[in-house]
Design a protein that fits this description.
heterodimer; A: about 80 residues; mainly alpha; Non-ribosomal Peptide Synthetase Peptidyl Carrier Protein, Chain A; B: about 270 residues; alpha/beta; 2-enoyl-CoA Hydratase, Chain A, domain 1; four-stranded mixed β-sheet; 11 strands; about 50% helix
Chain lengths: ~80, ~270
């Protein structure tokens, strides 16, 4: 059975906190991850690669166009699980 | 010249392998200066070949192997002159870089691209001239040109056609999406996957292995299995120049250059 969206969201927040060295408690689902993590588009590609590897999916980067919050990102990933 | 330290790249011979390191900020964008130094390398290559059995191309930039052509330079040069002169300048640039790429492609050594991070556009095309691509687990490959109204111009399409199935090429080109390293290996683009930060070490191990073989046999095998698609490469330049002359390209380049948002590299 695929994980729930909440579970997926939690894994994304954990992974982002770990990789970008941000305290997990500072991240919330509706944060703008570019701002909260302080990343640019190249680092967003790095995050995408880590997410694809973690969830063992392919997520075309055009699906991230205009996406900047963790909750929407989780829904995009959920659709590929 | 056995060693060279330039503004955008450097080379030296290490344990019988020529190591060509790209080091232009921010991510090895390929413009006039890089082209000048690549031409210098291509001219020096025949003199280096007798002392080496392999060539490794890699990047010392954290962001990746190369983000591709210097689009800012391409846009600004185009603004400085009439359209006809701008197209002529682009054609001259492409003919020069094709000459470099063809020289690297035909080098009678085993050539290895050790890539990590962003390997986009012209950077991807530089990796494609190499015999073997060894990729860091975090590498991403992309041809984003269509969103600017252009096709790849440094020889990418003919070399993709040489190496990959047509369906995978259509996916890369027509969606402009980036492939991760697992996908790139699955379609036959990447030979070996290295852990993060280990691509150069893995490339050196591979260079050491190929150094065990007779160089003449290696050169004969390579020439037999890796023909250079010269006619298609010329066609690519023609198509690129036709597309470049369209107003949509100028607008696409302007959008990219003037984009101050955080997502310009996301197609």
């Amino acid at each position: 059975m695929p994980p729930t969206t909440n579970h997926t969201l939690d894994e994304i927040l954990n992974l982002a906190a770990l990789h970008f060295k941000v305290p997990r408690e500072r991240l919330t689902p509706d944060d703008d991850f570019f701002k909260t993590l302080g990343i640019d588009s190249l680092q967003a590609l790095d995050l995408l690669t880590r997410l694809e590897s973690h969830f063992r999916i392919e997520l075309p980067d055009y699906e991230l166009q205009g996406v900047s919050d963790f909750r929407t990102l989780a829904s995009r990933i959920q659709a590929r699980l | 010249m056995k060693e060279f330290r330039g503004q955008t790249l450097s080379w030296q011979i290490v344990n019988g392998a020529i190591e060509l390191a790209l080091h232009r900020d921010p991510c090895n964008e390929i413009g006039s200066l890089t082209l000048d130094e690549l031409e210098r390398f291509a001219a020096a290559l025949p003199g280096l070949e007798s002392e080496a059995h392999a060539l490794i191309v890699h990047s010392t930039q954290k962001a990746g192997f190369s983000a591709g052509a210097d689009l800012r330079e391409l846009f600004l040069r185009g603004q400085e002159m009439e359209k006809v002169a701008a197209v002529r300048g682009v054609r001259e640039f492409l003919e020069r870089i094709h000459a470099v790429m063809n020289a690297l492609d035909a080098a009678p050594l085993t050539t290895i691209a050790a890539v990590h991070g962003v390997t986009f556009g012209g950077g991807f095309e530089l990796a494609l001239v190499c015999d073997i691509i060894i990729a860091d687990r975090m590498a991403r490959f992309c041809f984003p040109g269509l969103r600017l109204g252009l096709i790849p111009g440094f020889g990418g399409i003919p070399r993709l056609k040489r190496d990959l199935g047509n369906a995978a090429i259509r996916d890369l080109l027509l969606t402009g999406r980036s492939f991760n390293v697992m996908k790139a290996q699955q379609i036959g683009l990447v030979s070996q996957i290295a852990a993060e930060g280990e691509a150069l070490r893995v490339a050196r191990a591979t260079a050491s292995q190929v150094g065990k073989f007779d160089r003449w046999t290696t050169a004969a095998a390579k020439a037999f299995v890796k023909p250079i698609p010269y006619e298609e490469l010329k066609q690519e330049i023609n198509i690129f120049c036709d597309l470049y002359s369209r107003p949509a390209v100028e607008e696409g380049l302007r959008r990219f250059v003037e984009n101050e948002g955080v997502q310009p590299y996301l197609p």
